[in-house]
Design a protein that fits this description.
With 152 residues, the protein is an alpha/beta fold. The protein has seven helices and four strands, in the order βααβααβααβα. It has one domain. The protein has a four-stranded parallel sheet, with helices on both faces. Helix 4 packs across helix 5. The two termini are 26 Å apart.
Amino acid sequence: MFVLSSSPKSNVSIFATCVVNHIYPEVGLSTARVLEHFSCKVSVEQNQSCCGQPFFNSGFRNEARKLAEKVIETYKDVPGDVVVPSGSCVSMIRNHYQELIGPDHPLKSEAENLAGRMFEFSEYLNKLVTNGKFFSNINSNTLNKKLPDVVY
């Protein structure tokens, strides 16, 4: 069994993505189970929406901006990190939201803040390992324990 560190639980909100919400909900559930297994306090914001990438990639910048504003508003007061089981949604939020909303937008600082605390799922697990919050040690029985499947 994993021996968890005694550090306090990390607050983590899962941004489930459109595909997870509507096509592969088991991925979101497995993501939550894995994070909870490693002592994360998990939440899912009820009013989350699409990140806007389909609109952005299709050239519909105004529609993408509206969704970006909604995502930023949803997470601006949510404590802790935001974990996403999709690298493309993380890339959209980190790399394109600030461009979409522009330098004078009232949500500019919130967009920067969100970009800095949003992680793809496996990236977040790596962050926990490198910060020593993941577990304090592993014994030989650990390797035989099956964790829930997370599929991309």
